[in-house]
Design goal:
Helix content of chain A: 40-55%
CATH superfamily of chain A: NAD(P)-binding Rossmann-like Domain
Order of helices and strands of chain A: EHEHEHEHEHHEHHHE
Oligomer: heterodimer
CATH class of chain A: Alpha Beta
Distance between the termini of chain A: 24 Å
Shape of chain A: globular
Structural class of chain B: mainly alpha
Largest sheet of chain B: none
Number of helices of chain B: 4
Radius of gyration of chain A: 17 Å
Number of strands of chain A: 7
Largest interface: A-B, 7 and 4 residues
CATH superfamily of chain B: ACP-like
Structural class of chain A: alpha/beta
CATH topology of chain A: Rossmann fold
Chain lengths: ~250, ~80
């Protein structure tokens, strides 16, 4: 099922990590809502062009691919500034890019912590903070940070990942408070088990085990997360800020 | 128009404080009750009006109308 929010038409929304999984699903949903979809890509220009074409075909009012690695802060700032100069302010931001390197706490090396926190937490903060200046010139600004249900409930072998996702929640709430006087909203979404390449490779037995712990009995779809994200980007949620919403089939009740 | 008069006009429009009550020594934070985010926005307005760039670290030194007018004089 696809949601439709009329006010997303022509809205300029940047989605990080849009090449696959939840990020791609959000980009697709935005395209179907006729938004101006902006995504970043690291190096693979031909894949970026393919995605661009796909989103354009789905109805996006415009699609822009901006080249930057979210951990290369200089490149990110330079190329985003150039984008804003050419296209005007970005008024929607989905901080979705993230990674997970699962390992037992006793095996986690300090550099593993740096790496995960850098991508999942620091990059989101640097990117959002940098865009704040131009957000002041935009209207109906809404930011959605992709946290995780693991950031709320914790998980074995995910100490670092959980810390990074919990960190995003603290950032979300603080940013929401700081910028609320300028009518900017910032919320966090916490997906549970979602059917992606990551869950597909799990052995059937493990999948069944996971499913038995989910009250709704199934993994979620990436579109379930996209639907909530679009609601939060739209003015349909104009009185919601600093909120943390789970999309987890009841996994963490 | 003198730079300072133009600055006062911009500040007056943004804060809705009558221009006659804004002087050279008027302090943005103490006299006009602006918070730090208001200041960022005020400096962004100055940048637009005067076509100059005010570096973020410079903003902290610009406490009064006179500070801003002097900065703009040298920056232009």
């Amino acid at each position: 099922m696809n949601v439709q929010f009329n006010d997303l038409e022509n809205k300029t929304v940047l989605v990080t990590g849009a090449s696959r999984g939840i990020g791609k699903s959000i980009a697709i949903a935005l395209a179907k809502n006729k938004a101006h979809v902006v995504f970043n890509y690291r190096a693979d220009e031909s894949s970026a062009n393919e995605l661009k074409e796909e989103l354009q075909k789905l109805g996006a009012s415009k699609v822009s691919a901006v080249k930057f690695d979210i951990t290369n802060f200089d490149e990110m700032k330079t190329n985003l500034d150039a984008f804003v100069k050419e296209h005007g302010p970005i008024s929607g931001l989905v901080n979705n890019a993230g990674l997970s390197k699962d390992q037992l706490a006793l095996r986690v090396k300090p550099e593993d912590i740096d790496y995960t926190l850098n991508v999942n937490l620091k990059a989101t903060m640097v990117l959002t903070n940098h865009l704040t200046r131009q957000f002041l010139k935009a209207e109906n600004v809404s930011i959605v940070n992709m946290s995780s249900v693991v950031g709320l409930m914790g998980n074995t072998a995910q100490t670092v990942y959980a810390a990074s996702k919990a960190g995003l929640i603290g950032y979300t709430k603080s940013y929401a408070k700081e910028l609320s006087a300028r009518n900017m909203r910032c919320n966090a979404v916490c997906p549970g088990f979602i059917e992606t390449e990551m869950t597909k490779i799990l052995p059937e037995k493990t999948q069944a085990q996971y499913k038995s712990s989910i009250p709704l009995g199934e993994f979620g779809q990436t579109s379930d997360v996209a639907n909530l994200t679009l609601f939060l980007l739209s003015s349909a949620s104009s009185y919601i800020t600093g909120e943390v919403i789970k999309v987890d089939g009841g996994l963490y009740i | 128009m003198e730079i300072q008069d133009k600055v006062i006009k911009i500040v007056s429009e943004a804060t809705k404080v009558d221009a006659s009550n804004i002087k050279s020594e008027t302090n943005f934070i103490d006299d006009l009750n602006l918070d730090s985010l208001d200041m960022v926005e005020m400096m962004m307005k100055m940048e637009e009006e005067f076509g100059v760039e005010i570096p973020e670290d410079k903003t902290e030194d610009l406490k009064t109308i006179n500070d801003v007018a002097n900065f703009l004089k040298t920056a232009q």
